[in-house]
Write a structure and sequence with these properties.
Blueprint (H helix, E strand, L loop, with lengths): L2 E7 L2 H12 L2 E7 L7 H18 L2 E4 L4 H7 L11 H20 L4 E4 L9 H14 L3 E2 L9 H11 L14
Parallel strand pairs: 1-2, 1-4, 2-3, 4-5
Helix pairs in contact: 1-2, 1-6, 4-5
This protein binds iron/sulfur cluster.
C-alpha cells in the first residue's frame, strides 16, 4: 500500500515532474498555498493551470488561503533584498510551516514541496526548514531535490506537453 504524502505545490509546471517522482511510492494530496503570488490575477492564472494539470494527474487537491496581506507582514523590512536573500527565506519558511501544519492536521505522515525542482531555489534551505517543521509537527519531510537527474528540464517538457501556463517570475512583485 502506498504511503500518504502531502505535496506543497508552488505552481503547476513544478508539480508535473514532482508528481511523476512521487507517484509510485506515495498517494499524493496536493496543497496549493502561495500567498506570495502577486497580483491576484497572476495567482488565479497559476491556480487555473493547476486545475488543468489536475484534470490529467487527478490527485486530491486542497487550496490554502490567499492572504497576501499577511505575507507582506511576514517579509516586512526585507522588501528590497535580492531574490535568494532573507525575503525568500521568510517566504519559503512561511509556506513550509503552513504545509507541515496542514499535513499534520490531515494526519498525513509525509510531506514535501515542489520548490526544490527550481534551480533558483536554495535546496539546503528547503531541506533545513522542511525538516525543522517536520520535527515540530511530528511528521516526516521527504528531503528530495527534485531538480536532480534532469528534473527541472523534464518539468518544462511536461508543461509544454500538457500546454500549461508557465509564469515568467517567481511570485512576488518586488523582485
Ligand atoms: S522571489 Fe519568490 S521566493 Fe522570493 S520572496 Fe518573492 S515569491 Fe517568495
Amino acid at each position: 500500500m502506498k504511503k500518504k504524502c502531502l505535496l506543497h505545490i508552488c505552481c503547476a509546471p513544478c508539480a508535473t515532474q514532482t508528481i511523476e517522482c512521487l507517484n509510485s511510492e506515495y498517494s499524493i494530496t496536493g496543497y496549493f498555498y502561495n500567498p506570495n503570488i502577486e497580483p491576484l490575477a497572476e495567482y488565479n492564472l497559476r491556480l487555473d493551470a493547476l486545475f488543468k494539470l489536475n484534470s490529467i494527474v487527478n490527485i486530491d487537491l486542497f487550496i490554502g488561503d490567499y492572504d497576501n496581506r499577511y505575507w507582506r507582514k511576514v517579509i516586512k523590512g526585507f522588501e528590497n533584498d535580492k531574490e535568494g536573500g532573507k525575503r525568500c527565506e521568510l517566504c519559503i519558511d512561511l509556506r513550509l510551516k503552513n504545509a507541515a501544519y496542514f499535513a499534520s492536521a490531515l494526519k498525513i505522515k509525509y510531506y514535501t514541496t515542489t520548490l526544490s525542482i527550481s534551480p533558483y531555489k536554495n535546496y539546503e534551505l528547503i531541506k533545513t526548514l522542511g525538516e525543522q517543521y517536520a520535527k515540530e509537527y511530528n511528521i516526516v519531510f521527504i528531503a528530495e531535490d527534485f531538480k536532480k537527474n534532469g528534473g527541472y528540464k523534464k518539468s518544462i517538457e511536461l508543461s509544454k506537453k500538457y500546454e500549461l501556463y508557465r509564469q515568467k517570475y517567481c511570485g512576488c512583485k518586488i523582485q
